[in-house]
Design the sequence.
């Protein structure tokens, strides 16, 4: 549904010897394989996708804070795959990055993931092998870690996965996943936008009902600029981490690929009207989620919500002794390719471009052998993110959260930060999770085309 701007302004042997009842149960499966989904409106055929456990998006995984998540990835795809548990401060061996933390799981193979969930919040899981293609085909799902205390008083909750798909007129997923033009520009942008796999997502609500909306941008490259219509409320968490105090939703909320936001909103539209989560576009506004108001929950709105309980061990000590690093983004269309690319062995710059490597971090295209830095466990780092390109980049650090260093304060905890073209932003973090951690652009085509590095914490 279109919305006008006017409206918007308005051990094997031991196991054999154990009695059957004493054997450890196999973990629940997370089977990756082909699926079909009615993505396009009725009247179009179903679209062939890839998904987990027979669905795309995959099933929501919901567990309490400090619970142990155990899933056995079973690969029924024609390609190798893996699973990354995005935003979780996880054991490094479970992070799901082929070539860095594990081998990709071959077709017909399996891999057991098992780890504790230390932080309450909104997270997600997705393929991390050939992710430009595999995520675009539907290999992702929501991971919700519930607070064990201090839960907000709400009437209902919705997890909203925001995505776009590149579809042909026949409702077939376009298979140009390795399109060099996309990689060198803004990434793979789809022509059909959905929420939870639907182009017309809606639900009924009541006036003055209070909702928790968990928003996740699962798109390959689209930056969602969002606003509320007939809903008013507060941002209470970003990238899974609670804010120190709820922040009123202003005119727009921007979510880069992989970023999340938890909102607590009140339905302010009248009975008989429809409230919206709106995606703003150059042409106006489009309904991202519609809330049809039927009846009234209360005569008046409730007071503003309290802050969510903070997650543990998220403090940042003083920055006076922090070690400084630069991470410069280079290359891409209209970028300085000849200056940006490091020649890898006998390969020329032209050879790198033929391989689709058109982006670089600190002059290196692709995953380097040496890390960006080797940090001592517990060391504080300040990293300047310098975007010397013509396009924005959503930079994601695995295994950690960080805060942006602003002129007068530290920003909220994030695991992904949007750095606009020509922009310089600085982040600070405590390197408190041992292992080898990927740091990359979550415009997934940019990552595949060279924009990735890693850091070692030991």
Sequence:
């Amino acid at each position: 549904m279109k919305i006008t701007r006017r409206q918007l302004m308005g051990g094997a042997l031991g196991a054999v010897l154990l009695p059957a009842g004493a054997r450890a149960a196999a973990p629940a499966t997370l089977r990756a394989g082909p699926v079909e989904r009615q993505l396009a409106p009725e009247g179009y055929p179903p679209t062939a996708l890839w998904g987990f456990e027979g669905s795309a998006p995959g099933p929501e995984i919901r567990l309490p804070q400090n619970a142990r998540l155990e899933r056995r990835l079973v690969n029924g795809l024609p390609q190798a795959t893996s699973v990354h548990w995005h935003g979780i401060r996880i054991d490094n061996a479970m992070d799901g990055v082929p070539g860095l933390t594990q081998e990709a799981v071959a077709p017909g193979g399996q891999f057991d993931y098992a780890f504790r969930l230390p932080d309450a919040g909104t997270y997600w899981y997705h393929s991390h092998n050939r992710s430009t293609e595999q995520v675009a085909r539907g290999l992702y799902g929501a991971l919700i870690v519930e607070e064990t205390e201090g839960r907000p008083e709400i009437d209902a909750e919705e997890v909203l996965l925001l995505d776009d798909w590149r579809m042909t007129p026949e409702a077939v997923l376009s298979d140009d996943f390795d399109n060099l033009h996309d990689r060198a520009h803004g990434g793979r942008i789809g022509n059909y936008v959905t929420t939870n796999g639907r182009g017309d997502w809606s639900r009924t609500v009541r006036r003055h009902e209070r909702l928790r909306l968990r928003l996740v941008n699962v798109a390959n490259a689209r930056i969602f600029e969002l606003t509320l219509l007939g809903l008013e409320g507060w941002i209470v968490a970003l990238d899974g981490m609670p804010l120190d105090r709820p922040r009123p939703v202003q005119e727009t909320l921007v979510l880069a690929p992989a970023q999340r936001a938890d909102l607590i909103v009140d339905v302010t539209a009248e009975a008989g009207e429809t409230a919206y989560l709106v995606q703003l576009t150059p042409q106006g506004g489009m309904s991202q989620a519609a809330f049809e108001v039927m009846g009234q929950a209360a005569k008046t709105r409730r007071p503003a919500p309290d802050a969510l309980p903070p997650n543990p061990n998220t403090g940042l000590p003083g920055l006076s002794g922090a070690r400084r690093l630069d991470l410069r983004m280079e290359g891409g269309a209209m970028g300085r390719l000849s200056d940006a690319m490091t020649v890898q062995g006998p390969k020329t710059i032209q050879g790198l471009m033929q391989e689709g490597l058109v982006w670089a971090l600190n002059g290196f295209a692709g995953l380097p052998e040496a890390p960006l830095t080797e940090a001592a466990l517990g060391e504080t780092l300040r990293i300047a993110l310098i975007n010397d390109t013509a396009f924005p980049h959503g930079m994601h650090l695995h295994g950690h959260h960080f805060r942006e260093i602003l002129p007068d304060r530290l920003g909220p905890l994030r695991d992904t930060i949007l750095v606009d073209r020509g922009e310089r932003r600085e982040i600070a973090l405590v390197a408190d999770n041992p292992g080898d951690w990927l740091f990359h652009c979550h415009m997934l085509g940019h990552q595949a085309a060279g924009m990735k590095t890693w850091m070692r914490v030991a």
Observations:
- The two ends are 52 Å apart (CA to CA).
- The longest strand covers residues 284-296.
- Helices lie at 5-9, 12-17, 131-134, 180-184, 337-340, 349-354, 444-448.
- Residues 4-22 have pLDDT under 50 and may be disordered.
